[in-house]
TrEMBL record:
It comes from Aggregatibacter aphrophilus (Haemophilus aphrophilus). One of its GO terms (biological process) is molybdate ion transport. Keywords: ATP-binding, Molybdenum, Nucleotide-binding. SUPFAM superfamilies: MOP-like (SSF50331). InterPro entries: Mo/tungstate-bd_C_term_dom, Mop_domain, Transp-assoc_OB_typ1. This is Molybdate transporter ATP-binding protein. One of its GO terms (molecular function) is ATP binding. PROSITE patterns: MOP. The lineage of its organism: Bacteria, Pseudomonadati, Pseudomonadota, Gammaproteobacteria, Pasteurellales. NCBIfam families: Mop. Residues 42-106 form the Mop domain.
Amino acid sequence: MTALTLGDQQIWVNALAAEVDEFVRICIHSSDVSITLTKPEKSSIRNILYGRIVKVQERDNQVELQLDIAGKHIWAGISKWAFQDLALRLGQLVYIQIKAISVMIS
């Protein structure tokens, strides 16, 4: 596994042959991102980051959340049920979970 720096946080990806400080673009499908209000402990998920909800788009029974992590944006696709149950709102700080194997280098 290789750790990439994202602000003051790290995101783990499959082994990557890159130079230190080299810019790397990653791709994460919104369906591979989950949200939690408290920091998980003892999880198999390797990437647990924190960020802020900066945009909310509702579509049918799904909600797409745009999340800001150190000035970079990723999307999380969650159900309306989860959105309402967690009482998520714009500007809220949340923990973001991404399986390391779901992070692709583009």
